[in-house]
């Protein structure tokens, strides 16, 4: 029966509607439809309360912690005094103890173009008791300041532990929201895994190092109370020969030391630590990693020596992701992937956290290690020995969000969204961990994305999803 013009029109409208729907169907996972504000992320003004200098002459400022040994019984305490060196000693004591102990550190300064730093103090406290709350004081006289931290439980396969995950933080209004959300999240971690790009001081004229100071005061409200495991990003390089600065990473390494020697590393840019049931390997994506380079040789030995019966959760931190479906920085990590991915798969890394791309993305477990230039096998495939790759460079930096995504969404991409936020990795036992991502626009406890991670060494195959 011949269709009337009205029926033809209805049919054409329906076909067009179905075409529009199908055009937005992804080959991969979910591209979030959440609508966030696209207002440009602005830096907080220098007179913001979060940048306030502590009162009192030569008061310690920019106090922060990181792990001070390989096992978690040591802590590096760092701070700055602006007027004079003062004391590099930390006084500390265990909760409920009357015995006050002392650890003695050192101070240094550095010059960068027309900037001279304050007196940067570093003091390592060693041989602490596991799973214990400690109070500590820095400074002298009327300007002594007191903080606290808690050491992790002893290293072991079934030790639960929670990490916060933050990247590309900067010092904008959005950065402040991210840090506040992390502070107030009921699931807040006990240690922060930081995947690079701290202050963004290099984004200012002459790499204005005063912005390292404001960032240090801004982050103190969290970093003075729980260790941050530092990863160097591209904004930490600070290589500027046009103004006479030819030593890469100068401000970063002066301000944020790590215990790299404890893992037999030759550089503070790559190292490892154990913490509870996790073994964490920090990779430098802005240092040479080709065969026979120092980082390559260290990583080759490091992956081989991990004892998964002791620390079942193998976690890698790096700045530039090796899998990302965003247009910004697309495939920048490819040379790193060629070198590193074979180790990630061989040693069954559980999860790789990266930043750099100013958005959030979670991958399926995939690998692309079969390609040998002539076999044509150059597409990622489902691989249950591979890690989940999580890009979380969404801390709130001045460069704003990466909103442009490759289309269609590739099969390896499970979830992606261009919003600011933070992550929580909650290790339950040797076989299960829970990761959740929290966008800034939601309530403190709301999960915008989450996944149960099944340990690659002890886990099951119940999380297998084929990339059909």
From TrEMBL:
GO MF annotations, alphabetized: acid phosphatase activity; transition metal ion binding
EC top class, as a word: hydrolase
Keywords in alphabetical order: Glycoprotein, Hydrolase, Iron, Metal-binding, Signal, Zinc
Domain Purple acid phosphatase C-terminal: 386-445
Domain Purple acid phosphatase N-terminal: 60-151
InterPro entries: Calcineurin-like_PHP, Metallo-depent_PP-like, MPP_PAP, PAPs-like, PAPs_C, PAPs_N, Purple_acid_Pase-like_N
Cofactor: Fe cation; Zn(2+)
Reaction(s) catalysed (UniProt annotation): a phosphate monoester + H2O = an alcohol + phosphate
All copies of domain Calcineurin-like phosphoesterase, residue ranges: 162-360
Pfam families, A to Z: Metallophos, Metallophos_C, Pur_ac_phosph_N
Gene3D superfamilies: 3.60.21.10, Purple acid phosphatase-like, N-terminal
EC number: 3.1.3.2
Family: Belongs to the metallophosphoesterase superfamily. Purple acid phosphatase family.
PANTHER family named in the record: ACID PHOSPHATASE RELATED, FE(3+)-ZN(2+) PURPLE ACID PHOSPHATASE 12
Protein's name in the database: Purple acid phosphatase
Lineage: Eukaryota, Viridiplantae, Streptophyta, Embryophyta, Tracheophyta
